[in-house]
């Protein structure tokens, strides 16, 4: 019981750091513990008070779904998920919309080369915090779309040096709006290390449950791969994948050359791009008293 109480206190402090409010379901799901507990236990022993704060997440979710519908036109996009505050229903009025994009293998940078201009044509794209001497204000950030995490299907596990409580939250709170071929589930299974921090949340994400607040969110059901219709078709697919991979390398070099001078704490490779200039893990450990 003592360990459970300590876990509850840590979870409440974590939510407070982001000015979030925990419902009974939230407390159970995001309980900071490597052990699973039932909803009945956490709700009965640690009931949470209701919140009267305005909810801006519903409108932002509606906008996010419009963005995703457009981006699903790109055939190399496998999965698109909301991340950040919107994914947990805690968005503020001036918040942007954070998205994670997973592409087919060896197609990340080619996909990005298509997606970014396409997004800019129809929606407001999140700009860097500072452009030259000009500081980007709240009006430019509000409801803008920020694609801060790109992965291809060969790079689903989070690198060991990024594995911490904060990143575990980011992984498990990702809310899929589009999923082609069950890649979201593979993403969760590839990051079993998150159980060390959030055992309940891992089990819920694995079952794809607990999204009652966002009912009917997924825009595309898990698909079944098409049957192999012969050797000739297999050869054509192989040739197309080879050409795509070569074009992807060229697209990576082109975009990396453009971004090189602007890179600070971002992690960028041929198969993954973590556009997270801020690492909150250290500040969170200090806030929670975990060293």
Tally of helical segments: 12
Beta-strand fraction estimate? 5-15%
Q: Average pLDDT, to the nearest integer?
A: 86
**Helix-residue proportion:** 40-55%
Number of strand elements:
8
Q: Write down the overall geometry.
A: globular
Determine the structural class based on helices, strands and strand pairing.
Answer: alpha+beta
What is the radius of gyration? 20 Å
Helix and strand succession? Answer: HHHHEHEHEEHEHEHHHEEH
Main sheet?
6 strands, mixed
> Which stretches of 5+ consecutive residues score pLDDT under 50?
209-216
Integer tally of domains? 2
* Through-space gap between termini: 23 Å
Strand order in the sheet with the most strands: 6-1-2-5-8-7
Could you give a quick summary of the protein structure above?
The longest helix is centred in the last third of the chain and has 29 residues, at about 230-260. The strands form 2 sheets. Strands 6-1-2-5-8-7 form a 6-stranded mixed β-sheet, sandwiched between helices. It has a two-stranded antiparallel sheet with strand order 3-4. Helix 6 crosses helix 11.
Which features does this protein show?
291 residues, alpha+beta, 2 domains, six-stranded mixed beta sheet, two-stranded antiparallel sheet, 12 helices, 12% strand, globular
